[in-house]
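Sanity check

After download, print the first record. It should look like this:
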Amino acid sequence: MPIISDIFSPSLPFKNGHFNTIYRPLFMKNTIVYDRTRVTTWDADFIDLDFSFVGSKSLVLLIHGLEGSSQSNYMITTSNYLNKKGFDTVCMNLRGCSGEDNLLLGTYHSGKTDDVDFIIKYLNNNYSYDEIILVGFSLGGNLTLKYLGEFSDIPSEVKGGVAVSVPVDLTSSQAELNKLKNKIYLNEFLKTMKLKLLKKAEKFPDFKLNKELLFKASKFRHLEKQYTVPVFCFESSEDYWQKASSKPFIPEIKVPTLLINALDDSFLSKECYPTKEAKNMKNFHLLTPNYGGHVGFISSFTNTENDWLEKRISQFIEETIGIKH
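Expected structure tokens:
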């Protein structure tokens, strides 16, 4: 499929990728009322699902990014927009992200698609939707792409997916995040993750957390060494990055899927723009606008003009996947 670029033209300040990245979480104040359902998992834990119903036969499952939730602005604006287009939505709060700590030591990571598979099958078995579409953002986008390419028993009701601002190659994208240009973002992520790990250490005394090293941690790999690698049985951070990355699974995707990665996204390395796959695959589409930042895509200070991303998601679902209401 063709690689499409430079189709998003925001006003001047939003042409700066960093400005576009920080504007949405800091200044966008959209609201929504969800209906929450708590799902008990196969391993005696829970996952909270936040629904927004409009009486549709089609459901869009949204998955948030690192340390996000159903309350993240991009989740709210996408849910609202798709509701207006006639779609029911459900936001999957990854373990430990719904405002209440999950029950187990393990929470989530970039490649934990067993939870996605479980929730897809739960939705398919407990609701009567004709179509289910996945939409994931950042880490949630990596889960979306990996799930669609990894599992061979995806229900036939799953018709396609959209992924936004996705570090599809974790090895190179984590190196990108360690650069000075991303220090503010990295520190914010680390701050919330460190607090969560401290709480886990209190709840699970057998979890040997080195608090001195935790407080000194300045890179993701420092936390991965203490938590992600041992808890999820990876051999090393490098092993985790390799196994959790969605890029190797993209060629196996069988349903129409769109990846939107802005060229000015400071989180992404050049390896995170899978142009070769897009050129050689029938089902995989890639949009690489010049602007947008990381899960930003804000056009101006006027809220009425800030739905470019939501329009692109809806357009792909309606025109390419072929589901209209």
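If your output differs, re-run the checksum step. Summary of this record's structure: DSSP finds eleven helices and nine strands in the chain.
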